[in-house]
């Protein structure tokens, strides 16, 4: 069956800024369509429709329950504040809606497990909104990391995700409000860092997680900046990450192997949505007298036919269509990677709360 036949019908629950980007992705993906959008008020839903030039055929709801009761909605994209995820994600699953849930997926793994159980028990596909996994560059980078001859064994990893919030952002954004997104920078930016580290390690959980004492909070106690180290005892591999809402823009990932290294500076959002690069070095040595190197980094460029967010929607819709039409089982790799990320995030927060002591996984 062609992708554009019987497209998966999305409902967007919440009119957050990120919903505009995902609506564009739904429009661009060949196997999906926007059926409805809901906000807490019909006025906000109408404002979103006008701002984004939505078709008159898209239904507008001023109540989230009305969206969930729409029998024509196959899947829900949910960019609500993290504190609301548990209630509305479970309700969506109980209504038989497949779930694309914005990150961070939950305030803790206990809440996430309730969401995942609701999806699993109803035979529904779950995926979080980490878009970078779906870029073809990510698969190319994995090929290099998996090449023992070129890269070898992973010895160390570092990732960062940071940006400088404006004064208005730091005062009013939901990501700095303890009742809306209590995880702050750790949940917003740190989610990407942890996810990239676990992706590098093929989703294997670390043995020990230790938050580092360099931390910044706002007056409400929400984390604005933090860092942590992760350690794998069997592999003798160490990883560190830095996440911040008060530092210059970074989206770095560096993976160091016994035979090679990989660097990417824009792993979360590529500099250009049509093409992305990464660099690797393999077999590097110093020249005689240490006056230079025997090799220079090689740059790999990867074209992308669709923006990574549209590829995420396409992948998710393909899985939903397989369940809906061919009665396939949900792909549990996505829920598993989300849960691993949440477990490490919880461990970092726990380490912070107990005075930056190590937490055993």
Describe the model:
The chain has 361 residues and is α/β, with parallel strands linked by helices. It folds into two domains: 8-132, NAD(P)-binding Rossmann-like Domain (Rossmann fold), CATH 3.40.50.720; 136-307 and 342-360, Dihydrodipicolinate Reductase, domain 2 (2-Layer Sandwich). Helices cover 34% and strands 26% of the residues. It has eleven helices and 17 strands. It has helices at residues 17-28, 42-51, 64-68, 85-94, 109-121, 136-145, 167-172, 184-188, 190-200, 308-326, 333-353; strands spanning 8-13, 32-38, 59-61, 75-78, 98-101, 126-128, 154-164, 208-211, 216-217, 223-232, 237-244, 246-250, 253-257, 260-264, 275-282, 298-303, 359-360. Helix 5 links the parallel strand 5 (98-101) and strand 6 (126-128). Helix 4 (85-94) packs parallel to helix 5, helix 5 (109-121) runs antiparallel to helix 11 (333-353) and helix 9 crosses helix 11 (333-353). The protein is globular, with a radius of gyration of 21 Å. The chain starts with 7 loop residues before the first strand and ends with a strand.
What is the CATH homology-level superfamily of the largest domain? Dihydrodipicolinate Reductase, domain 2
Q: Largest sheet at a glance?
A: 11 strands, mixed
Radius of gyration: 21 Å
What percentage of the residues does DSSP assign to strands (E)?
A: 25-35%
CATH fold label of the largest domain: Dihydrodipicolinate Reductase, domain 2
CATH architecture assignment of the largest domain: 2-Layer Sandwich
Structural class: alpha/beta
CATH C-level class of the largest domain is Alpha Beta
Terminal CA distance: 44 Å
**How many separate structural domains?**
2
Work out the helicity level: 25-40%
* Beta strands, count: 17
What is the averaged pLDDT score?
A: 97
The succession of helices and strands, N to C, reads: EHEHEHEHEHEHEHHHEEEEEEEEEHHE
Question: In one word, what is the shape?
Answer: globular
Domain GFO/IDH/MocA-like oxidoreductase: 151-262
Protein name: Gfo/Idh/MocA-like oxidoreductase N-terminal domain-containing protein
Domain Gfo/Idh/MocA-like oxidoreductase N-terminal: 8-127
Organism: Fraxinus pennsylvanica
């Amino acid at each position: 069956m062609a992708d554009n036949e019987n497209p998966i019908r999305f409902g967007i629950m919440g009119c957050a800024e990120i919903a505009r980007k995902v609506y564009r992705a739904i429009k661009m993906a060949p196997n999906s369509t926007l059926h409805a959008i809901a906000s807490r008020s019909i006025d906000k839903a109408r404002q979103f429709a006008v701002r984004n030039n939505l078709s008159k055929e898209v239904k507008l709801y001023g109540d989230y329950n009305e969206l969930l009761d729409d029998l024509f909605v196959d899947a829900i994209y949910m960019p609500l504040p993290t504190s609301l995820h548990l209630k509305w994600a479970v309700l969506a699953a109980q209504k038989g809606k497949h779930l694309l849930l914005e990150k961070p997926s939950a305030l803790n793994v206990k809440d996430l497990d309730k969401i995942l159980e609701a999806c699993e028990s109803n035979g529904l596909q779950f995926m979080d909104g980490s878009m970078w996994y779906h870029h073809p560059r990510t698969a190319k980078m994995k090929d290099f990391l998996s090449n023992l001859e070129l890269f070898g064994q992973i010895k160390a990893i570092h990732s960062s995700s940071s940006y400088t919030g404006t004064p208005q952002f730091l005062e009013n954004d939901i990501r700095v409000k303890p009742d809306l997104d209590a995880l702050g920078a750790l949940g917003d930016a740190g989610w990407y860092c942890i996810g990239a580290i676990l992706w590098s390690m093929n989703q294997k959980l670390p043995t020990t997680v230790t938050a580092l004492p360099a931390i910044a909070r706002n007056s409400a106690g929400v984390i604005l900046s933090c860092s942590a180290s992760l350690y794998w005892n069997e592999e003798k591999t160490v990883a560190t990450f830095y996440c911040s809402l008060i530092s210059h823009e970074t989206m770095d990932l560096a993976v160091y192997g016994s035979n090679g290294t990989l660097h990417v500076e824009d792993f979360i959002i590529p500099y250009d949505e049509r093409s992305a690069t990464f660099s690797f070095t393999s077999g590097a040595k110093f020249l005689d007298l240490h006056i230079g190197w025997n090799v220079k980094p090689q740059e790999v460029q990867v074209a992308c036919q669709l923006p990574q967010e549209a590829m995420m929607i396409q992948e998710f819709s393909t899985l939903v269509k397989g369940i809906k039409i061919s009665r396939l089982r949900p792909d549990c790799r996505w829920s598993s990677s989300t849960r691993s990320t949440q477990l490490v995030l919880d461990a970092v927060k726990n380490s912070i709360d107990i005075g930056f002591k190590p937490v055993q996984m």
